[in-house]
Write a structure and sequence with these properties.
It contains 13 helices and no strands. The protein is an all-alpha fold. It has one domain: Farnesyl Diphosphate Synthase (Orthogonal Bundle), CATH 1.10.600.
């Protein structure tokens, strides 16, 4: 118990420091490139939930580096902060019904000039991440970008009060799974588009993952479950049907799913790396941490 408490306190301290760092980097970019959006940006960051999105994205990228045996660098950190921010903004705009899905597609080549001021910060930060990514990224990783955007669009169906539980599971699996594969591609652009290697899917009672892409996709689907537990009360107030609000995942059931996911990763990565990777996420599966970070 003492060891767990120490881990929780360390994670909470690290999260606070990371949030400050993320704010400094994004604020500097907005001030230099879009000073007219500073008030909007400052208002957005006053919501702790938005900073947490960038923190968790950075933690996830660091963990992927542990798994691959690579060093986490400044490029990866900046991409993580920008990616976490635009993902959160897109989610909230869609959930609130303020924009059409195609207007908040990630890494979309089209530029919308419809005068919707609610999109200004989203486009500002999207411009920032495009500047960071290699020029060939959108072409080489077109499939994963399309799959991710489609999963985000389908997430609007979670506002349907009569949506079937199996549909909820499918949507959340895809939003989480493709999110991790897109993050992987962004921080390791020298690798191939893993979404082209997907064979199976998240199946707790089925066989182990067949490809490395499957194992990482499953990890993303599991993270989606963690995220739903964190956002349970927020989403319930918004009328959003998700895994936790519908009792499809609980803090208790998360343990079994965690074991399924990390055992699957061991088929493609050295066990010692997977264990380090797992230790990074162990504290996040605590209800206490969910309270501290919200």
């Amino acid at each position: 118990m003492i060891k767990q408490i120490r881990a929780l306190l360390k994670l909470n301290k690290e999260a606070k420091l990371t949030a400050v760092e993320a704010d400094i980097i994004l604020k500097s970019y907005v001030r230099q490139n879009h000073p007219n959006l500073m008030d909007e940006y400052n208002s957005w960051t006053r919501n702790k939930r938005n900073l947490t999105a960038m923190v968790i994205t950075k933690f996830g990228s660091e963990a992927l580096c542990d798994l691959e045996g690579k060093l986490f660098n400044e490029y990866m950190k900046d991409v993580s902060f920008f990616g976490g921010a635009i993902g959160r903004i897109a989610d909230d705009l869609l959930d609130n019904g303020e924009v059409n899905p195609e207007e908040v597609y990630i890494l979309n080549n089209e530029v919308y000039e419809n005068g919707n001021q609610k999109l200004s910060l989203f486009y500002c930060l999207s411009e920032g991440i495009k500047f960071l990514l290699p020029v060939y990224f959108e072409k080489d990783f077109g499939n994963i970008i399309r799959e991710f955007n489609k999963s985000q669009e389908d997430s609007l169906k979670l506002l349907n009060p009569f949506i079937h539980p199996e549909k909820i599971i499918d949507i959340k699996d895809r939003t989480g799974g493709y999110s991790v594969l897109l993050s992987y591609s962004a921080i390791f652009p020298e690798e191939e588009d893993l979404s082209l290697s997907l064979v199976g899917g998240y199946n707790l009672n089925g066989s182990s993952p067949i490809t490395k892409a499957d194992a990482l996709y499953n990890f993303g689907a599991w993270l989606s479950r963690v995220d739903d537990l964190y956002d349970k009360h927020y989403d319930k107030k918004k009328g959003i049907k998700q895994l936790a609000t519908e009792g499809l995942v609980t803090w208790r059931s998360l343990r079994k799913e965690r074991d399924y996911v990390f055992e699957g990763l061991k088929r493609f990565y050295p066990e010692e790396r997977v264990n380090v990777f797992r230790e990074r996420f162990e504290p996040l599966t605590s209800r206490v941490v969910a309270v501290l970070m919200n």
